[in-house]
């Protein structure tokens, strides 16, 4: 990525530590004018790294902080399409930190709290705002090793080589999370994974999940898993146990935290796990590369790795007291480092459960589609949905005519361009609200449907046809008589191959890439 | 004991300047990339490579290849 680093301290030595990302540094002298200016930003992401101590100790004192908060807020407002990374304050060893200062209204504690809350608010207000909580992320490093007063006085360089290396690793992880698709489902074994012991041998009251000791380790692990689900990660169970195992534990053991409602899918049985996990992926409509499998048994992990190499199978900690730390600081950053949570992400578990209800409805032979009471609505060139629209282009593989991916900044350009329409489709039915599930990009200048894609969660319910009809309606209103549309084969978009042909686009159908044309009446 | 060639190698790498453009008697003024920011980077690299600490006062005296050689060898005793 092409990254702009705006800072009130010299950050140039960070460059070599940002992995493959290319960074530019406007320099300490230029930073207020860069923030105050209205020049278009030519970068894939911007890091605004502010050293709060340097603000506090300047001639303007603590009031300067409010001025900078205003500048940052205004800058972020004016650049909604750019992924922006803000930071919480790192307390420096040089902070005038004393017991008296700690309680003063303009003391360091109050200033840091004010700064951190302002950055959180500003990051939350932007479609692609990210808050890097530096103090938390660097909590296991001694501040004296990360900073240096020698370089500070030599060239306003706050950090030591160690400091830049640590910050570089941290910012690299943040930047990578913007472009690398996160996995979606955390699949859990039960015995000695979610709780201690074996349910079939120890019984629902004999398993270890409780207030103290090893039981507390597993109880805390379950709380951590529940929080992860609230952040949009789907939880599922794949265990060698009899059906009804979780209900049995919930009914008998008041210390059990997770209940069946926390899981989007529960598969209990005695067949080998790899085949069952493949079936679960199909039921959930996700690829195998969206799965992370947690199991304490090296045998089960080995079998899964051998049979399904796309599934992530992290090594399991040797001791239960390590579970929470391992989940939060290894599993999550590696596999679920989602920089931006969209509304759709947070509602994920409810959506997938609604989806399962729909699937059962189909099996029941109900007049499925008619009974779903589907309601669709459309948003056109609406920057408020930028994050979700860009995310859909990154994550949708199957029903995707061209598999063209767009970074948030590119999506913002499409939305803003006068000769392009980005049309998102909202989906709701009687089982629940799915949010924006698909989009189409219409190039008015070329009279071409540049892409149309739909989340596989709602595929086959007529949504794709309805979205195309909406696109054609917009094209007609813009005076387009003949609409072109492209299809580019990928490894996974076979399901979309005959969509254009079925919907009246004529042309050289077949082959890996082709363009069809349709006369609009 | 470190030599001028050892220092040239570090300075060249840190400043992105070919080593042959930096003479063993070069000082910061002779190398365009060896500006004030470049100098802090050179100091950082010297500290890491040769395991020394350059205090603020000494940063001025190590603005040449020879100055760095003398400083590091003195520090190493």
Which terms summarize this structure?
A: 521 residues, alpha/beta, 8-stranded mixed sheet, 5-stranded parallel sheet, 18% strand, B: 77 residues, mainly alpha, 0% strand
Question: Oligomeric status of the shown chains?
Answer: heterodimer
**Biggest pleated-sheet summary of chain A:** 8 strands, mixed
Q: Could you list the spans of chain A in which at least 5 consecutive residues all have pLDDT below 50? A: none
SSE topology string of chain B: HHHH
Descriptive account of the structure:
The complex is a heterodimer of chains A (521) and B (77). Chain A has 521 residues and is an alpha/beta fold. The two termini of chain A are 44 Å apart. Chain B is mainly α. Helix content of chain B is 58%, strand content 0%. In chain B, helix 1 crosses helix 4. The model of chain B has no long low-confidence stretch (mean pLDDT 91). The chains are: A alpha/beta (521), B mainly alpha (77). The interface between A and B is medium-sized, with 11 and 13 residues.
Overview in brief:
Chain A is of the alpha/beta class. Helices cover 41% and strands 18% of the residues of chain A. In chain A, β14, α21 and β15 form a beta-alpha-beta unit.
